[in-house]
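User: Can you predict the 3D structure for this chain?
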Amino acid sequence: MKLIRTTKTRVLFHLGHWEAHLLLEVLNLYPCLPTAHQKLSKASRRPESDANQQLLDEALAEHRAENKKQLQALLADRRRFAPTETGGRLSLPPAEVEWILQVLNDIRVGSWVRLGSPDPTPTKLNETTAPHYRAMEMAGYFEAQLLEALRGDHET
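Assistant: Here is the predicted structure, written as structure tokens:
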């Protein structure tokens, strides 16, 4: 993933064939973080806790559904994600770069949770755990590339 140009209104990347394919594959995993993972409070149980937790779960489900729709629209839009002879071109406004970072983080953390929250890596990779480990690592790779692009303060 190579940063081509950054302006105040656009960030343009070139992706090789394998990167474009992997980015699509990883983004299609969204949402990955289990719904029950986000707890409202770790404090003692109160009568209203269950109702409040249900409200949080519903709000998160709505947010994820909206993100999924936006993500599908982005991936279908050839002006923003277009195949090229050498791979693909990703063109995003800076705000969408930050949004994609949030989506990728959901995938990375969700994969880590599905692996049992290992430190630093799963103890045993097998056909069940390997896809989650791959998704976690690839989401992290794309996050790092996007963050590096955002770190640049200059137009190219």
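Helices lie at 17-27, 49-76, 94-114, 130-151. The CA atoms of residues 104 and 139 lie 5 Å apart.
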